[in-house]
Amino acid sequence: MSKGFIIDHSVSDMISEILYDDKKHWCRIKDLVEYVEASRLSGTNLNLKVEFQTDPEIKILINKIRMTRALVNLIDNAYDAVNGIEDGKILLKVKTYENELWLGVSDNGKGISPKEQLKIWKAGFSTKSHPGMGLAFVRQVAKGHGASLEIDSKLGHGTIIWIKLAERSVSR
Question: Domains in the chain and their CATH numbers?
Fold first, then answer.
């Protein structure tokens, strides 16, 4: 197989994933994390810590482009939450729980009030000068993967948002 074919095939897969949200491929967790890091950190001096609490070789059935964008949206929100905090920390967590794979973004920022937690997933809601589509997109991506979302946030202590992929999307 020629190198040109491999590159053309990869570009074709990437375009399909962008255009068709139901287009999914098996991907190692560590490859997804590397893709997220490259997408988020390219051209910045920002640092993202990653914590694997499971085997990074586990494969998940995902639309890598859309899942990456969802995780980058969560990471962007976490950076906004710790902006101006001297010891601000952001962590991308990957763990298995029972038969699910959990992808989480945590920060030690200002947290989200219970009232705002009820609104954050709605398109158009924002506490910043943004269009408010980021978390609505995250919700859409999770739904398209048969995943659930969970948020744990306390004012003044930070937030963690989990994308929980069901067993049928995980191969060990």
Answer: 25-171 (3.30.565.10)
